[in-house]
Amino acid sequence: MAAPGAERECAEAELCADSQGGSGVKVVPPSEAAAPAPLCPHGPTLLFVKVSQGKEETRRFYACSACRDRKDCNFFQWEDEKLSGARLAARECHNRRGRPPLSRLQCVERYLRFIQLPLTQRKFCESCQQLLLPDDWGVHGEHQVVGDVSVTQLRRPSQLLYPLENKKANAQYLFSERTCQFLVGLLSTLGFRRVLCVGTPRLHELIRLTTSGGKKSNLKSLLLDIDFRYSQFYMEDSFCHYNMFNHHFFDGKPALEVCRAFLQEDKGDGVIMVTDPPFGGLVEPLAITFKKLIGMWKEGQSQDDSQQEMPIFWIFPYFLEARICQFFPSFCMLDYQPGSTVAFAITVLSHIIHVRALKTAALFVVNWITNAVLALTSAPRRKPTKLSESRSKEKVIR
Ligand SMILES: C[S@@+](CC[C@H](N)C(=O)[O-])C[C@H]1O[C@@H](n2cnc3c(N)ncnc32)[C@H](O)[C@@H]1O
Ligand SMILES: [Zn+2]
Ligand SMILES: [Zn+2]
């Protein structure tokens, strides 16, 4: 029988439809699961339930949190299934094989050796998407290799690496230079000092570039992303290999502590999170993750600030506004209106939309910074859409 996990590709649309008598697959919140989730190479799996004409099936199943296509990760297990010792061992072995070839520490050591090399010896294998040390050259002899990798190129890994466009896993749609410049300027003007970049590698590198170039920006940035290739370019304090659909740090506690320290520095003052997840991702697991990150930030706050909300910019399809507001009632959507001459819409969202070739992008921000953003950008502010309206838009788009 085909695993129901294979049908998750339009899960969010289906999830919204289910209470109206629709069919699809829905995530079961971890708090409602009876046991800890089994692991796939992408960390703890998620528990799903199939919904047929508004009714949940009784048998629930675990599937990968990060990959919405079984070709990328074919993990499947019924919730009540008992696995033999041999199958558990085979799974453990499979998970080990799915881990990155190098540890985080090895990546850092390689990077430090790489930057010591003279320019003529700094090579990058395009076929393997890897920085090469002289010992590696033999193995990559027949591959597509570029030489003379400059410091500027090392600081812009998103230009050296090819974007992983697989829509059902990475969906790496990068911001244009202008969008990034605009966002960096906006964040700086709003007075933020630290940016937690969740799935925004290009924004991360521009922030670092702006700071290191002595261009008066004192923004710091930490990138959390599932794309392991970025490990080659950053030290441990600026990149964590991370899955935003289950809050999994692939390098365990030390990486989690890097994130915690970043969020809690200066008692959490001056932090904003900017996130641009794959548009096919489910809102609920993202919301659970973001609440965990918010929780970490809150732990570092003093008592007086306990009512404060962590500032967040979340770029996501506009038709999911009602879903997002279910989890974050204080979020406000800054809308893109076609034909509008509003500076913000033109300079930012139209670029995001072009880059992503989807006319669906919107920016969600925590309510209390809305006025500041609006004052700076003249972005239009809309009334929240009713759930029923957003559902009908969703159907049209899909
Ligand atoms: C739509 S792109 C956003 C890129 C952004 N516009 C930029 O230019 O910086 C999505 C990003 O999320 C990352 N990503 C995809 N799935 C992820 C996951 N499960 N956990 C963490 N990051 C993920 C991708 O590698 C990619 O960098
Ligand atoms: Zn997986
Ligand atoms: Zn190679």
Helix content: 25-40%
CATH topology of the largest domain: Rossmann fold
Strand order of the largest sheet: 14-13-12-11-15-16-18-17
Tell me the Rg in angstroms.
22 Å
**The number of domains:** 3
What summary fits the major beta sheet?
Answer: 8 strands, mixed
Distinct compounds present: S-adenosylmethionine, zinc ion
Structural class: alpha+beta
Question: How many DSSP helices?
Answer: 13
- Regarding quaternary structure, what we see is single chain
| Portion in strands | 15-25%
What's the quick description here?
With 398 residues, this protein is an alpha+beta fold. The chain has 13 helices and 18 strands. The strands form 4 sheets. It has an 8-stranded mixed sheet with strand order 14-13-12-11-15-16-18-17, with helices on both faces.
